[in-house]
C-alpha cells in the first residue's frame, strides 16, 4: 500500500517537472522574440563595429580601410608614445573638467529658479530648455558669430567695457575655454529639463513640513532639495561626463582642433587619424583607448557615487 | 481664553465657488478637537489654513488672541503631522526629529535633551539610527508625532494621522495619541469635541455623545455611528406613523410631542434600538435578508420599503436568511427630521432618559 503511494508521488513529480520545463522553454522563446528587434539593432550598430574596431586596431590598413599587415599591439604602443595623442588626452580631460561641473551647476541653478510656482514661469522653462532643440551645427554657427574677433558681440561688449579684445577661438589659451562655454550652453537644455523633472518629483509635503518647522530657503535647499535630487544629479553627471568625452561636432565647426592642437579632443583626433590620414588601425586603437577610459571612469563614478546617492 | 478662534473663515480657489464657508469656531486651550467629514468636505483645507500653508480668502483667524491671517507658518507657533507623515527619506529618525530644531538653531545641548525625552516618550530610542523606509507604518507614525512633540509648540495639527494605518494599528495609535496628550499635560478636565464638516459648511459641533444621540441633521445622523443609522420616509395619519409605507406604528400625542408636521418626515433609528421582540413586546415581524456575526454581536438586515435597515443585537443569534424574526420598534427611539430641510425636528426621547440614568 505504502509502496504504491510512493510510486504515484514519483510519477507526478516527474510530470510536473516536464510541464514546468516546457513552460520555461516557451516563455524563454517568447522573451527572446520580444528582444529580437533590439538585439539585431545592437548587433549591427554596436557589437559588430566594436569588435571590428578591436580587430582593426591590431592591423595596419590601406586608405580604404582594408587590413594589410598584422602588427599586434604596435598601434597602441605608437599612440602612447605620440605627443599628439597624449596632448589630445590632456585636452579631453581638461574639456571634461570644464564642461561637466559648469553644465551641472548652471542648469541646477536655472532648474531651482524655474521650479518656483510663479505666473508665467512656463515661459522661462521653455526658454531654459530650448537649447535642447538646437542642433550642434546651428549652435556652433551662432557661437562662431559671437566669438568673431572683430564683429562678434562678445568682443564688442569687452571693447565697450574698455577691455582688450580676446581671440576667443584663435588664442591657444582661450580656445578650449571658448569651446567649453559653447558646449555648456548646448548641454544646458537637456540637463535643465532632467533636473527640473527631478525637482518636481520631490514631495511638496516635505517643504511644507519644513516651512512649519521654520526652515529658511537655503536650509531647505541644502537639507531637502540637494539630497532628494541626488539620484537625478548622479544621472545627469554621468551622462554629461560621457557626452563630454565624445564631443566632436562643435570642435569640428569652431576650431578644427586648433590652434596648436589646443582643442584637439580625442574624438576629433580619431576622426583626423582615420579620415584625413587614412590610418584606420591607429584610429581604431585610439577609439578603443577612449572606450576603456570612459568605461573605467564611469565604473569608478558608480562606485564613489553610490555611497552619496540616496534612492527612495 | 480661546486658543484658536475662527470668525467667518472662507476659502475659495481662483474666485470660484467657496470650498469653505462661514466657519465660526473657537477651540480652547488643552482641548482635543476632532474634525470629521467625508473626503472633499474641506477638513484638510481648514487645517492647512490654520497652519498657514493655504491662503485665507476671507474672515479672521486668531491664535492666542492674535490675528495670524498674514503670518507665515513658522511664525504661528504650531506643529503639524501630515497624512503621509512627510518624513525625510534621506535622513535618519534622529535627524528627522531634530530637523526643525536645527532649522531654528536651537543649541545642541537642548536638542539632545529634547531628543532623548521625546524618543523615550514615543518608544523610539532603539530606532534613532534607522531610515524611514526601514520602519513599519506604526513606527513612522510615531516618528511623525515625535517631530511634532519635540518642537514644544502649544498647538498640534494632525491631518488624518491614522488613515495610513491598518484597522488594528489605528485603534492602538488612537490610544497612544490620547496617552501622549495626557503625558504632555495637554488635557484638562474638558472632554473632546467633534466638528462635522460637509461641503465646506459646519454641520454640527459638540461632544461625541450629543453628536450620536441628537444629530442636528440627516447628514450628521448618517455620518456618525456604525452601522449607519436606519432612515425611512414617514407620514403621520390616522394616529399611526407609517414608515416607508410598510411599517405602521400606533402613536399618541405624547409620543410625537411638538411635531406639527405630518408629511415629509424622515425618521432615524439606531441599529441597537431595533430590539428582539418576545411574545409580549414584539411589534412587527420582519424578514431577514442578511446576517453578520461579529463575535458577541449580530447584525441583521431587513428590507423596509426601499431602505435596508440594520438591527444590532447583543449575543450570538442563530438566525438564517429568510427567517421571519419578531422585533420591537418603538417611536420613543426615533428621531424625526424634515425631509426637505434635513433638519432635526425632534430627537429620540429614550436617549434622554438613558443619559439621566448614566448621570446618577
Automatic annotation (TrEMBL), chain A:
Gene Ontology process terms (BP): transmembrane transport
Superkingdom as given in the UniProt entry: Bacteria
Locations listed in the record: Cell membrane
PROSITE patterns reported in the protein's UniProt record: ABC_TM1
Record-level GO cellular component terms: plasma membrane
CDD domains referenced in this protein's UniProt entry, alphabetically: TM_PBP2
Domain spans labelled ABC transmembrane type-1: 89-301
Transmembrane regions: 28-51, 91-114, 126-146, 174-196, 226-245, 283-302
Membrane topology summary: Multi-pass membrane protein
Keyword entries, A-Z: Cell membrane, Membrane, Transmembrane, Transmembrane helix, Transport
PANTHER family: ABC TRANSPORTER PERMEASE PROTEIN, INNER MEMBRANE ABC TRANSPORTER PERMEASE PROTEIN YCJO
UniProt similarity note: Belongs to the binding-protein-dependent transport system permease family.
Protein's name according to its UniProt entry: Sugar ABC transporter permease
UniProtKB/TrEMBL annotation, chain B:
Pfam family for this entry, one: ABC_tran
Molecular function GO terms recorded: ABC-type transporter activity; ATP binding; ATP hydrolysis activity
GO cellular component, one term: ATP-binding cassette (ABC) transporter complex, substrate-binding subunit-containing
InterPro entries per UniProt: AAA+_ATPase, ABC_transporter-like_ATP-bd, ABC_transporter-like_CS, ABC_transpr_MalK/UgpC-like, Mo/tungstate-bd_C_term_dom, NA-bd_OB-fold, P-loop_NTPase
SMART domains to which the protein is assigned, alphabetical: AAA
UniProt keyword annotations, A-Z: ATP-binding, Cell membrane, Membrane, Nucleotide-binding, Translocase, Transport
Name of the molecule in the record: ABC transporter ATP-binding protein
Origin species: Gracilibacillus oryzae
Amino acid at each position: 500500500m505504502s509502496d504504491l503511494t510512493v510510486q504515484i508521488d514519483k510519477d507526478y513529480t516527474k510530470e510536473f517537472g516536464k510541464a514546468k520545463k516546457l513552460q520555461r522553454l516557451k516563455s524563454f522563446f517568447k522573451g527572446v522574440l520580444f528582444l529580437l528587434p533590439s538585439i539585431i539593432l545592437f548587433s549591427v550598430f554596436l557589437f559588430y563595429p566594436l569588435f571590428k574596431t578591436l580587430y582593426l586596431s591590431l592591423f595596419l590598413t590601406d586608405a580604404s580601410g582594408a587590413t594589410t599587415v598584422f602588427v599586434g599591439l604596435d598601434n597602441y604602443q605608437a599612440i602612447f608614445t605620440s605627443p599628439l595623442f597624449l596632448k589630445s588626452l590632456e585636452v579631453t580631460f581638461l574639456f571634461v573638467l570644464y564642461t561637466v561641473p559648469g553644465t551641472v551647476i548652471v542648469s541646477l541653478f536655472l532648474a531651482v529658479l524655474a521650479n518656483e510656482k510663479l505666473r508665467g514661469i512656463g515661459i522661462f522653462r521653455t526658454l531654459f530648455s530650448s537649447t535642447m532643440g538646437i542642433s550642434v551645427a546651428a549652435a556652433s554657427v551662432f557661437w562662431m558669430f559671437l566669438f568673431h574677433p572683430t564683429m562678434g558681440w562678445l568682443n564688442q561688449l569687452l571693447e565697450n567695457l574698455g577691455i582688450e579684445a580676446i581671440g576667443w577661438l584663435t588664442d591657444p589659451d582661450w580656445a578650449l575655454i571658448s569651446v567649453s562655454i559653447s558646449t555648456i550652453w548646448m548641454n544646458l537644455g537637456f540637463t535643465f529639463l532632467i533636473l527640473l523633472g527631478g525637482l518636481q518629483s520631490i514631495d511638496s509635503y516635505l517643504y511644507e513640513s519644513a516651512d512649519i518647522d521654520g526652515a529658511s530657503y537655503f536650509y531647505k535647499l541644502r537639507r531637502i532639495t540637494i539630497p532628494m535630487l541626488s539620484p537625478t544629479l548622479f544621472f545627469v553627471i554621468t551622462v554629461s561626463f560621457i557626452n563630454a568625452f565624445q564631443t566632436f561636432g562643435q570642435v569640428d565647426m569652431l576650431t578644427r582642433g586648433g590652434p596648436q592642437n589646443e582643442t584637439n579632443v580625442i574624438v576629433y583626433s580619431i576622426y583626423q587619424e582615420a579620415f584625413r590620414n587614412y590610418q584606420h588601425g591607429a584610429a581604431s586603437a585610439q577609439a578603443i583607448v577612449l572606450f576603456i577610459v570612459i568605461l573605467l571612469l564611469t565604473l569608478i563614478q558608480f562606485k564613489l557615487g553610490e555611497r552619496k546617492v540616496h534612492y527612495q | 481664553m480661546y486658543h484658536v478662534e475662527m470668525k467667518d473663515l472662507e476659502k475659495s480657489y481662483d474666485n470660484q465657488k467657496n470650498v469653505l464657508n462661514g466657519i465660526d469656531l473657537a477651540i480652547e486651550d488643552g482641548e482635543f478637537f476632532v474634525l470629521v467629514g467625508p473626503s472633499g468636505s474641506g477638513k484638510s483645507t481648514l487645517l492647512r489654513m490654520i497652519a498657514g500653508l493655504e491662503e485665507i480668502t476671507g474672515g479672521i483667524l486668531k491664535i492666542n488672541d492674535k490675528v495670524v491671517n498674514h503670518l507665515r507658518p513658522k511664525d504661528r507657533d504650531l506643529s503639524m503631522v501630515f497624512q503621509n507623515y512627510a518624513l525625510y527619506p534621506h535622513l535618519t529618525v534622529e535627524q528627522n526629529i531634530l530637523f526643525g530644531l536645527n532649522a531654528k538653531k536651537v543649541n545642541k545641548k537642548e536638542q539632545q535633551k529634547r531628543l532623548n525625552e521625546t524618543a523615550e516618550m514615543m518608544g523610539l530610542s532603539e530606532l534613532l539610527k534607522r531610515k524611514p523606509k526601514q520602519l513599519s507604518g506604526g513606527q513612522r507614525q510615531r516618528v511623525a508625532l515625535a517631530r511634532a512633540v519635540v518642537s514644544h509648540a502649544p498647538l498640534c495639527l494632525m491631518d488624518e494621522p491614522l488613515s495610513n494605518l491598518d484597522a488594528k494599528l489605528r485603534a492602538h495609535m488612537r490610544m497612544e495619541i490620547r496617552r501622549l496628550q495626557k503625558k504632555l499635560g495637554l488635557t484638562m478636565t474638558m472632554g473632546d469635541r467633534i466638528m462635522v464638516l460637509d461641503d465646506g459648511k459646519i454641520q454640527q459641533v459638540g461632544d461625541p455623545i450629543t453628536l450620536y444621540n441628537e444629530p442636528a441633521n440627516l447628514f450628521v445622523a448618517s455620518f456618525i455611528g456604525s452601522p449607519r443609522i436606519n432612515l425611512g420616509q414617514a407620514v403621520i395619519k390616522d394616529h399611526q406613523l407609517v414608515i416607508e409605507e410598510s411599517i405602521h406604528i400606533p402613536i399618541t400625542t405624547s409620543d410625537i410631542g411638538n411635531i406639527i408636521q405630518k408629511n415629509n418626515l424622515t425618521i432615524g433609528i439606531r441599529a441597537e434600538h431595533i430590539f428582539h421582540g418576545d411574545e409580549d413586546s414584539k411589534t412587527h415581524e420582519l424578514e431577514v435578508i442578511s446576517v453578520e456575526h461579529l463575535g458577541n454581536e449580530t447584525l441583521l438586515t431587513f428590507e423596509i420599503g426601499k431602505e435596508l435597515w440594520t438591527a444590532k443585537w447583543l449575543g450570538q443569534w442563530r438566525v438564517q436568511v429568510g427567517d421571519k424574526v419578531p422585533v420591537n420598534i418603538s417611536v420613543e427611539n426615533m428621531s424625526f427630521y424634515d425631509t426637505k430641510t434635513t433638519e432635526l425636528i425632534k430627537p429620540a426621547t429614550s436617549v434622554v432618559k438613558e443619559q439621566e440614568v448614566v448621570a446618577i
